[in-house]
Amino acid sequence: MKTLGEFILEKQHDFPHATGELSALLSAIKLGAKIIHHDINRAGLIDILGENGHANIQGERQMKLDAFANETFKAALEARVVIAGIASEEEDNLVIFGKDRATEGKYVVLMDPLDGSSNIDVNVSVGTIFSIYHRITNIGTPVTEQDFLQPGNKQVAAGYIVYGSSTMLVYTTGCGVHAFTYDPSIGVFYLSHENVQFPSIGKMYSINEGYYSKFPMGVKKYIKYCQKEDEKTNRPYTSRYIGSLVSDFHRNLLKGGIYIYPSTAQYPNGKLRLLYEGNPIAFLAEQAGGKATDGYQRILDIVPQKLHQRTPYFVGVKSMVDDADRFMAENP
């Protein structure tokens, strides 16, 4: 059995910018994941459930675990000298790691520290999403917002941790998708799924149908298409929705499906964050043979204009996303 560290070293040549740096970056994320795993598994016994009385920059109520996960990963990443700074869904602004690091650090990290945190109160799977970029400003000059506002096709690594019946870390460096399962008895992530690929044929769709009346017409018609019987195309599809992007995507990656979070009347630009959720999951999806769009264009080609930019989201088995895009195009 290969550990995460052994696997990274073995595949080091696949990471074009790194000479041991990927190992340092993922080691920081791995450490944060272990701490979060430990406390999530004691969530009913310690005071980390419920809201903390604050709201994030998007105006969403912040859970205690959101703040705890954000501080945990921020501290773990700050300990790595190759990281100049981070952007987080839970932070109003960029977090730059000191004067020297801001000028010498080679990488920036963007993250959603705890996706689906409201589910933790009812013991449902949650996750962490991360995205890594090589800075584009010159080494020796201060890192700027420009280093963070890069299109997703410039990512050098991305991944997520899902905290469920087991804790798994899934990542890509542009050379396939690999998953590691955590053994808490010895504190090690072991390779459990190498070169993960979406099934060629999908069989489920994930969307919050409670907002059906607020969906664009193309999404409404695609849902009806999913529900219609047609043996040739393996329909009707099964409806499965957890309410945590990481959990829904992870299931659809392994079982075959599509996840949709479209624009609505309340969120005309979509609700998911492009930088913290959309880009990293899209990178993983494409590396696994899938597809991710906003209903019209490839997610990874969108040039972000601001840190907390939102986007409609369609991700999963390529043929299913193609069908959804077709319905969107035909019903503008």
Notes on the structure:
With 332 residues, this protein is α+β, with helices and mostly antiparallel strands. Helix content is 29%, strand content 25%. The model has no long low-confidence stretch (mean pLDDT 90).
| Number of helical regions | 8
Structural class, please? alpha+beta
Radius of gyration: 19 Å
Q: What letter string, H or E per element, gives the SSE order? A: HHEEHEEHEEEEEEEHEHEEHEEEH
Task: Write down the overall geometry.
Answer: globular
Largest sheet: 8 strands, mixed
Question: What is the count of β-strands?
Answer: 17
- Indicate the low-confidence ranges by residue numbers: none
Helix content: 25-40%
Sheet-strand content, in percent, reads 25-35%
Can you give the mean pLDDT? 90
Termini distance?
Answer: 50 Å
Strand order of the largest sheet: 4-3-5-6-7-8-9-10
Topology overview:
Layout: H1 4-10, H2 21-40, E1 51-55, E2 61-63, H3 64-78, E3 83-88, E4 95-96, H4 99-104, E5 107-115, E6 126-134, E7 155-163, E8 167-172, E9 177-183, E10 188-193, E11 204-206, H5 217-227, E12 238-239, H6 245-255, E13 257-261, E14 272-273, H7 274-287, E15 291-293, E16 310-311, E17 313-316, H8 318-330
Parallel strand pairs: 3-5, 11-12, 11-13
Antiparallel strand pairs: 1-2, 3-4, 5-6, 6-7, 7-8, 8-9, 9-10, 13-17, 14-16, 15-17
